[in-house]
Write a sequence for this structure.
């Protein structure tokens, strides 16, 4: 050990910091693997044929399943999901109850993004009338869904919200419906429907992991250099002492 003398303070710092840096790098790799699995599941289910709500309802894992709907919109109870940004522009997402005639169930259908450049005027949107046949896919939020906030800015309709919980809406309206959001596919009734599936791509997680591992390697390299350098300095110190 005479060839390696890093000192007690650097040793303590490395013992505290190095495990944390390695853990952060491994955690980012794990998150990247989870995102890849999520994207693979999304892609596989989005390529499948749409199913009915009767087939969907008993499924334990309905996320990203495509469904076909036949029914009509409720034009009286629209929700405007605020603070949605696309290409640097502020806007809202339009969510409306949709009655599926074959299953007798309501779904909270997200028709997509609309710009809202002037907050002094309400956003403009149209709702198709009559019987419609639509294709959509199930979105299940990672946190358990959207929550309808109490004390919303407006008690009227359309209602501006920041989060939505479908179950709360059905209880307010006294209806039976699915407890999650359903997102409309591109078509005549949709607006802008290019939702990102994950907020951060697997490649970004890999990039962050590389950064954490690089910091760990730099810390370890500095520790080794300091230990060798101090040992050499100690060997070159005069061996005699002055009286």
């Amino acid at each position: 050990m005479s060839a390696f003398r890093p000192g007690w303070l650097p040793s303590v710092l490395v013992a505290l910091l190095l495990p944390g840096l390695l853990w952060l790098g491994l955690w980012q790799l794990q998150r990247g693997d989870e995102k890849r699995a999520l994207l693979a599941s999304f892609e596989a289910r989005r390529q499948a044929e749409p199913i009915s709500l009767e087939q969907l309802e008993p499924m334990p894992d309905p996320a990203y399943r495509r469904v076909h709907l036949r029914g009509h919109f409720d034009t009286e109870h629209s929700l405007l999901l605020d603070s949605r940004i696309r290409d640097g522009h502020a806007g809202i997402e339009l969510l409306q109850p949709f009655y599926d005639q074959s299953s007798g169930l309501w779904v909270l259908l997200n028709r997509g993004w609309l710009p809202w450049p002037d907050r002094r005027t309400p956003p403009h949107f149209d709702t198709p009338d009559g019987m419609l046949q639509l294709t959509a896919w199930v979105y299940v939020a990672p946190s358990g869904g959207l929550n309808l906030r109490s004390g919303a800015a407006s008690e009227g309709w359309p209602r501006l919200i920041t989060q939505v919980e479908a179950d709360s809406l059905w209880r307010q309206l006294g209806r039976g419906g699915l407890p999650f959001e359903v997102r409309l596919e591109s078509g005549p009734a949709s607006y802008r429907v290019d939702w990102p599936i994950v907020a951060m791509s697997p490649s970004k997680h890999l990039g962050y992991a590389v950064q954490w591992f690089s910091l760990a390697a730099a810390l370890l390299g500095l520790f080794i250099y300091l230990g060798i350098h101090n040992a050499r300095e100690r060997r070159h110190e005069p061996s005699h002492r002055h009286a």
Q: What stands out?
A: Residues 8-47 form the longest helix (40 residues). The two ends are 29 Å apart (CA to CA). The longest strand covers residues 89-100. Residues 50-184 form one domain.
